[in-house]
Amino acid sequence: MSRGMNISNGASAIRVRFAPSPTGFLHIGGARTALFNWLYAKHTGGKFILRIEDTDLERSKKEYLDEILDSLTWLAMDWDEVYYQSQRFNIYREYADKLLKKGMAYTAENGAIIFKVGAEKIKINDIIRGEIEFDSELIKDQVLIKEDKSPTYNFACVIDDALLGITHVLRGDDHISNTPKQVVLYEALGFKVPYFAHLPLILGKDGGRLSKRTGATAISDYRKLGYLPEALTNYLLLLGFSPGGNQEVVDIAEVIKKFELKNINKAAAVFDMDKLNWLNAQYIKKADAAHLTELLIPRLIERGFIKKENFNRDGILPVVKLFQGRISTLTDFVNWADFVFSDKVKFDEEAHKKFLERNLSKEFSLLLERFAQITDFNHTAIEEKFREVVKELGMKAGDLVHPVRIALSGKTIGPGLFETMALLGKNKVKERLMMAKELWKNAPEARLKCLMWLSILFFSASLFSGCAMVRMLKETMGGPKSTISDESKDVSQEGSEDNPVTKADKWIRDNWW
């Protein structure tokens, strides 16, 4: 007998469900299952039911439930009804007793109630995968009520799907093996068998099952990392459904109009973080800058870039606009725009190394001189003076652009240089270019001083061998403190400010790069 196709689309209102377990956070696979159920409900004018499978009272946690509900709300997947299995134990027991009375189940020695599985061929017509056949002889008798009086997953699932009027069961294909176990229970209790549609697996780029390393991260973590809910929803859609026309950035409202289960892909989907980043960048680019600003303000407060109150909201908006077309996540903005909100430039390692490769003090001095002539410090005037200096010096523009960018931001890449300077303002640009000149001025001198004091240090070590220097070196390396006679202390003058050893040690600690 073939099951799963006994309800026509027009026979009753479509009712689908998403049934998460609050024993963990909502991850990518579960979120996609929720989305496809939600889309089908919206497409058919049906109902989207949320059923919390919290029968494992020990492992179910409120923090997981809160995260699941918050994540679904953040992704704009609104539900019509919500049920908690932990509040329905008496219902499951009632139906288990019915099977006992019919002689279709028995009680084990430990008090568990077990269903007798008969021998038959079970066929289901999966909407996505077509006909699937199972041999019930390979299925063991099924526990309905466990020793601790809680229901098993398959039994509670069947009772709830039937009583809640679920017409279509959309879930991951890792549940295919549960389907025949549930079908025999539907039939034993005289319930209609719903449609089944098993969604393809989501694999990592390495071809294996999705893991934390390849993207199996909680939805709340993606939110913290700075992904937009619209972008993540869009990407979840692409993990198993093609909107047609080679579209990748889609309008969910348009997808709802044409979402059909038969068009869900059979092949496994591959989670690609690079593609998600690209897609998120597209949504950030087209987002309203004022809306992005509101999303970014809490992140800027958290990093200490602005105060919780009395900050200049209007001053943040142009910064957002400057970076909006160049970032993939909201976190990127906080990391890349830090130099705008800080008084000091923090050089990353690569930028610091490149900056010290060539002394451009002369060129920076000329830039400072020409920038001082600008009355309206806008990007057009800045670019004009900059190119004037480059031409006068006979340089390629890039040879000066990159060092100036590093001097202003501490980074090797960023938004347009002239727009960045206009945003920072004339005074801050002047201040940072002068600071850059100081870095070049002091770097060679610092090296020379370092070599000089190191020479003094080693000379002193040999001169006062066994005395203060040896003790210092031993203590530095974790060795035992040496015992020095009063005479030795007088000779070494350890506490004296004029002692070359003390000077060397202090300078190295204070000035070593």
Helix-strand blueprint:
Elements: E1 2-3, E2 15-18, H1 28-44, E3 47-52, H2 62-74, E4 81-84, H3 89-101, E5 105-107, E6 113-115, E7 121-126, E8 130-135, E9 142-145, H4 153-163, E10 168-172, H5 179-188, E11 195-199, E12 202-203, H6 219-224, H7 229-238, H8 252-258, E13 269-270, H9 273-286, H10 289-302, H11 313-323, H12 330-336, H13 338-341, H14 349-355, H15 361-371, H16 379-393, H17 397-409, H18 417-424, H19 426-463, H20 468-476, H21 486-492, H22 500-511
Parallel strand pairs: 1-7, 2-3, 3-4, 10-11, 12-13
Antiparallel strand pairs: 5-6, 6-9, 7-8
Please tell me what the overall shape is. Answer: elongated
The number of domains? 4
The separation of the N and C termini measures 80 Å
CATH classification, class level of the largest domain: Mainly Alpha
Described by its quaternary structure, the protein is single chain
The CATH superfamily of the largest domain is known as: Glutamyl-trna Synthetase, Domain 2
Structure class:
mainly alpha
- The side-by-side strand order for the widest beta sheet comes to 1-7-8
Number of strands: 13
Radius of gyration: 34 Å
Query: How much of the polypeptide forms β-strand, as a percent range?
Result: 5-15%
Low-confidence stretches: 1-11, 464-470, 476-513
Second rung of CATH, namely the architecture of the largest domain: Orthogonal Bundle
For the largest beta-sheet, the strand count, sense and barrel status come to:
3 strands, mixed
